[in-house]
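Internal tracking record. Fields below are filled automatically when a chain is submitted to the structure queue. Please do not edit lines marked as system-generated. If the sequence contains nonstandard residues, flag them in the REMARKS field before resubmitting.
Queue: standard
Priority: normal
Entity type: single polypeptide chain
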Amino acid sequence: MTDTTTTTPPPGAPTGGLARPSIIITSQYLRDLSFENPNAPEALTPGTTIPQVKVNVDVKTRALAENRYEVTLNIKGESDVADKKAFIVELSYAGVVGVENASREQVGPMLLIEAPRQLFPFARQIIADAVRNGGYPPLLIQPIDFVELFRRQVEAAQRARAQDAGVTPAAPTA
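SYSTEM-GENERATED OUTPUT FOLLOWS
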């Protein structure tokens, strides 16, 4: 029998005295919302064709203070019915995000992947409600792969830097 006691930390607990990187969303808010219904009521007439919808998503960040950032999720949805614009919905939904225990290399992915992933359900609901209130079925945006969006942003930034330096970048791999 010994006088020492060993305790095992629970799964996921920090080890070695180092805390895990984390983000904390301290506030979230609607920054801008626009809904245009340029061809109402004709576009709402029963029997019209099913609208074709195109959705674009972008994420922007800006530093507010040390380890505090604003992350803005910009979503634009456009719908056409019989070659006429049915509706346009544009949303900027933002959150103030605190980043803790993260290295410089970790901050970008945390702000451009994890923060928008947490903001997205709220933005999706606002868009669905706005489109429904415009007389159309709710626009239920499918989950977004923010990892892929981040990867594309990194590749675009690398291409821009290479062009500025006069270097031809390698083609992206699939």
